[in-house]
Design a protein that fits this description.
The chain has 303 residues and is an alpha/beta fold. The chain has a single domain, classed as 3-Layer(aba) Sandwich (Arginase, Chain A). It contains 11 helices and 8 strands. α1 packs across α11, α3 runs parallel beside α4 and α8 crosses α9. The radius of gyration is 17 Å and the shape is globular. It is an enzyme of class 3 (hydrolase). Pathway: Nitrogen metabolism; urea cycle; L-ornithine and urea from L-arginine: step 1/1.
Length: 303
């Protein structure tokens, strides 16, 4: 399989900057070498998506959607790259960057798969919901408004990015690892009908049972699945290099097992890994874990 590595060094969407260096950190952690060792062919763009450093960009006039214009511009370009990758029957592996990049990734996937008549599902592995809108967001950081926009809620500039309308049916969105939700986004997530497996669900039912439910969720309703993996889904004691750490997260083995099991259903055709912040990391450990998580999804086996 041809794996298309797309580097997206965008960090306008969050409060703590430094995730723009995440793609470089993951590259230096050996992502290409690891993927090729599994037997895949890695392709990259000769010209990376250009993102102007945050300190040189106007924050904009809307305090409830900071850096709206540059985020829309960059994610629109990303959407086109992702769409072209799917049309070439490649596996887009997008390296972020903060989680606002999901706006571009999912827009590109929706555009490509809609023409093929395929139903898109999203597995969102994250400590957070990212389901606020400009009306509910307590911060105005767009990385907290990105998944709601993909599902058709919030600012029109975000909802209609690349193409008009929602990019994924919220009933085809499944969360794993959630443990930090704002009240406004919690209400909207319930109204929208997304499926959520919190850390408490993992503790209550066991990780194996949750994974079985996740696999059944996608096998019964989707033709293709995208995985959006935020490194803050892991406990910060093992993954310190991320911008919004929340105690009590998944452990490393659970993340690897989840990726192995998702690989087994044969529906996952794209992935993004976000919120690796090397400024906060220790010896690039979080980036190394990101590489191994991607490898397990792409078929790496222990034996």
């Amino acid at each position: 399989m041809n794996v298309h590595i797309i580097e997206m060094p965008l960090d306008y969407g969050g409060r703590r900057h430094g995730s723009d260096m995440g793609p470089s950190a993951i590259r230096l952690a050996g992502v290409r070498r690891k993927i090729e060792s599994i037997g895949h062919t890695v392709v990259t763009d000769s010209k990376s998506i250009e993102v102007i450093p945050q300190e040189n960009v106007d924050i904009g006039s809307n305090p409830k959607a900071k850096y709206l214009e540059p985020i829309v511009k960059a994610c629109t370009e990303l959407a086109g790259v992702v769409r072209n990758s799917v049309e070439k029957e490649e596996f887009p592996l997008v390296l972020g960057g903060d989680h606002s990049i999901v706006l571009g990734t999912v827009a590109g996937l929706h555009s490509a798969y809609r023409e093929k008549g395929k139903r898109l599902g999203v597995l969102y592995v994250d400590a957070h919901g990212d389901f606020n809108t400009d009306e509910t967001s307590p911060t105005g950081n767009i990385h907290g408004e990105c998944m709601s926009a993909c599902a058709g809620y919030g600012l029109k500039d975000l909802v209609n990015l690349y193409e008009e309308g929602r990019k994924v049916d919220p009933k085809n969105i499944c969360y794993v690892g959630v443990r930090d939700l704002d009240e406004g986004e919690k209400r909207l997530m319930k109204e929208a009908g997304v499926t959520v497996f919190t850390i408490s669900d993992i503790d209550r039912y066991g990780f194996d049972e949750v994974v079985k439910k996740v696999k059944l969720f996608f096998k019964t309703r989707c033709d293709v699945v995208h995985i959006s993996f935020d490194m803050d889904s892991l406990d910060p004691s093992i993954a310190p290099g991320t911008g919004v750490p929340v105690p009590g997260g998944m452990n490393y083995r659970e993340a690897l097992l989840l990726m192995e099991e998702m690989h087994s259903i044969g529906l996952v055709k794209s992935m993004e890994i976000v919120e690796v912040n090397p400024i906060l990391d220790v010896r690039n450990e979080t980036a190394v874990m990101a590489v191994n998580i991607a490898a397990r999804l792409l078929g790496e086996k222990l034996f």
